[in-house]
Amino acid sequence: MAKVALRLNELINSATLRDELSTLADKHRPASLDARNAALALLKQQRKAGLRIAEDMLRQDGGGRACARRLSHVMDEIVRALYGFAATHVYPADNPSTAERIAVIAVGGYGRDTLAPGSDIDLLFLLPYKRTPWSEQVVEYMLYMLWDMGLKVGHATRNIDECIRLAVTDMTIRTSLLESRFLCGDKALNLDMAQRFDREIMADTGAEFAQAKLAERDLRHARVGESRYLVEPDVKDGKGGLRDLHTLFWIGKYFYRVRSGAELVGKGVFTQGEYRLFLKSEDFLWAVRCHMHFLTGKAQERLHFDIQPDIAKRLGYLRHPGLSAVERFMKHYFLIAKDVGDLTRIFCAGLEEEQAKQVRTRPGARRPASPSPGRRRLAGTGDFIIDNHRLNVIDQKVFERDPVNLLRLFWYGDQHGLEFHPNALKLVTRSLSLVDKSLRRNPEVNRLFLDILTSSRCAELNLRRMNEAGLLGRLIPDFGKIVAMMQFNMYHHYTVDEHLIRCIGVLAEIESGAGQKAHPLSHSLMPGLKKSRNALYVAVLLHDIAKGRPEDHSIAGAKIARRICPQLGLSGADTEIVAWLIHNHLLMSMTAQTRDLNDRKTIEDFAAAVQSVERLKLLLVLTVCDIRGVGPGVWNGWKGQLLRTLYYETELLLTGGFSELPRSQRLQEAQENLLARLFDWPEAERLAYVNLHHANYLLTVDLADQLRHADFVRKTDAGGHKLGTMARIHEFEAVTELTVLAPDQPRLLSLVAGACAAAGANIVDAQIFTSADGRALDTILISREFELEEDEYRRTQRISKLIEDALSGRNRLPEVIARRSKAKRQARAFHITPRAELRNTLSHRFSVIEVKGLDRPGLLAEITGALSDLSLDIASAHITTFGEKVVDTFYVTDLNGQKIEDRNRITAITKQLVDVLKGTGL
User: Fold this and answer.
1) pTM of the model
2) pLDDT at 367
3) d(C-alpha 158, C-alpha 166), whole Å
4) Where are the annotated segments for Disordered (predicted)?
5) Distance of CA 409 to the CA centre of its chain
């Protein structure tokens, strides 16, 4: 990496600043308010100018660490000038005693001589003994001036004894002192403290410090996110972020007693290439962090969606075929985060080896009979050992002697249930050049890999270790292309490679029975899929392998599978199964979530695509894994219920069990069944009630639900109410069913949708029925929000009240929605071309309208309102949200119950809906 010139003299002229402060002291009484205000204005101006110049330099040369050094230099000169002004002019000590001395010291990140624009300024005011009136006045003056400049200042005023005493027990203080850097004041004080810190704190406590810092890192990762592949990463504290590099430097400086990172090469911890990678990673992360602070004007540490495009533009990324500029930037980010993980692993391996060496060579230590305590050969192999319960290599030439050992390491780890020694993983990363075409085609390598992939023990863990070491991407080059690849949307929580590995974990969970409660059907199907088990695991691993290419990733992925599967040892039949599954891996999910599963044409079309029960079973399991692997909160019981319904209905058709009775005969049976179950009603009343419902209701609503509705309608009428609502919580499906009985009107669904939006409720499905007496019986399914049923029922009461107020005209829903709802901040970063399409081939009885666009509060109410204005009757609505994107489907007819066939009318409908999606509709 080319060095970037710091050009510090261009940022701030320290001599001029000091001269101007001296002139102020001569012009005003130094301790006066006028002098203070003038000095404050001057310091603010100098810092603002320095930051502006630093930002310009960052845009010009892209040097992230250089920018952090420049910003630190600006702050150094301001602190020095401020101290000189305070100690010399405002509170001069004419005849200072030995106690009237101060050393102003930068600590923490500022002590490392690096700052981001919004970083805290951490200062230690070091005293020789106890505080004096003079020292208190100077420190107080400096702090108030810095605070009035708008800076966040972390500060402490201590003498040397206090610093040493606190450093013994407080690891945070110990770390800040480790990074201390003298700024101004009494240099001898700083030197005295540094010598005592080295002698009294650092001596013989390296292992203790390293252990504490690594434990602190693990807690930080648990707090901000265990994965380094979260699509909105924390650049400072996240896994693979700057703080991980800082942790390595702290431990290296403390344990190896070095002053710079470069000295770690001499200690054998890093190779020269690995240290260059350390500097490259640090420089990139500093550039991103500084740009984030400059862009937002605050200490923004999480790389949110809404700023990612701007940061990508600032860093000069351009669009390539298949990947947008922001996706290219984020892929680079995640590759750097992966490099940080590699460096951490290498560092920890070196650290552990050094600690073991120190134990073995400590004076008086008993020399063990074996090479090292806790080390023994792994049975059946001469190349691997068990080292303190972890799998390690016997020497540094293991992979060079036989590159197949790269796979054997992970195979043995799986077979014996062993974690991997960091030294072994370090050697894997350093040996990746051994993976060539011949190794990829080696039958034993592919057999071992397939065993690891399909293992019932810990496939996800071993695949992740292989991926983090870089082996998985080298072994399967097509997989290497999606390593660290991010999809710029709010739906996917992880990079593509992390998503695929998590999907394998979900599949293993389903097969083992750990996922039986959440996925009972998928779990029950797995024993019957033994013949296709390997094909299923391969399909799950490869289903998104073609993401980021210009061609549709399902089509391209099937082509890749046909090339890779024979190499892995799969038969021709299994290869075709894998290719078909990848080509169709979105089919079941989209059908279940966006189509009316009570419409026979939906099932017929899906069955025609699937063709066999075996494929249906495999596709169901793959679909569950795919949705579950997207991220937390994406899967819910309602999606599971939709998939189960689609599975059972399709299985019936594929096995010849689907009812082929004429519609009239099925309607007659449905009427007779409902009549029979209402046996305790008066004859006239039950006949009148059954005749209220049209065929669509009787043929599509479950009999148990029909009986609940009958009781609900009867009670509402008995109470003399025009409007009635009924709530039912579906615990397993994680949805709440809200049934609304009201006089029918064209905009009823729009009003209900608006009331749900105003209450912050997310609609996932809706069925709309009209009775013969002019009333509507609408069933709305909303995502469940509260765990306790009483809380969820109170929520439905609020929604019901909003619906009642809207129907009675007491509330204008657009105003309520605007007042109570707020668009997701991330959504501002996305643009989705709005689309609306009307098709008559998806249902025998309805026209099907599908709309796609960017989500916003109240959008569903606007769309359904527009459909009503267009004189369309909505029979069912299927509402799907993929992050920031909505895909809503409506089964409609005209007011005469017929499909919309006229081309001009179809064009008018789609245009009006696109205008609504754009926000320009009426």
Assistant:
1) 0.80
2) 44
3) 10
4) 358-380
5) 31
Distance between CA atoms of 55 and 11, rounded to whole angstroms? Answer: 10
For 795-846, the pLDDT digits (tens) are 888 888 887 777 776 666 666 665 555 555 555 667 788 999 999 999 999 9
User: Which two tokens mark 393?
Assistant: 């290599």
Q: Who contacts 559 (Cβ-Cβ below 8 Å, separation ≥6)?
A: 546, 579
| Cα 163 to Cα 194: distance, rounded to the nearest angstrom | 11
Q: Give the integer Cα–Cα distance in Å for 536 and 545.
A: 15
* 3-state secondary structure string across 578-593: HHHHHHCCCHHHHHHH
> In this structure, what DSSP letter does residue 792 have?
H
Question: For tokens 């390997």, what's the residue?
Answer: 534
852 DSSP assignment: E
Confidence of residue 540 (pLDDT cuts 50, 70, 90): very high
Which residues have CB under 8 Å from 429's CB, separation 6+? Answer: 342, 345, 346, 469, 470
Residue type for position 42: L
Q: What is the pLDDT of residues 453-509, one digit of tens each?
A: 999 988 999 999 999 899 999 999 999 999 988 876 666 778 899 999 999 999 999
pLDDT tens figures, 321-372: 878 899 899 999 999 988 898 888 788 877 776 766 665 454 444 444 344 5
Strands 419-420 and 390-393 come out as: parallel
Q: Identify the pLDDT of residue 349.
A: 74
Tell me the pairing of strands 153-159 and 121-127: parallel
- 720-738 b/e with 16+ CB inside 10 Å = b? eeeebbbbbeeeebbbbbb
Measured distance CA(202)–CA(255) in Å, rounded: 8
DSSP label of 494: B
Secondary structure of 721-756 in HEC code, one letter for each residue: CCCEEEEEEECCCCEEEEEEEEECCCCHHHHHHHHH
Question: In the chain, what's the furthest Cα-to-Cα distance?
Answer: 111
Number of helices and strands in the chain (H, E): 40, 16
H or E, element range at 374: none
Radius of gyration of the chain from its Cα atoms, rounded to whole angstroms = 34
| 418-446: burial string, b at 16+ Cβ within 10 Å, e else | bebbbbbbbbbbbbeebbeeebbebeebb
* Distance from C-alpha of 446 to C-alpha of 475, rounded to nearest angstrom: 9
Mean of pLDDT over the chain? 88
Distance CA 898, CA 836 (A): 20
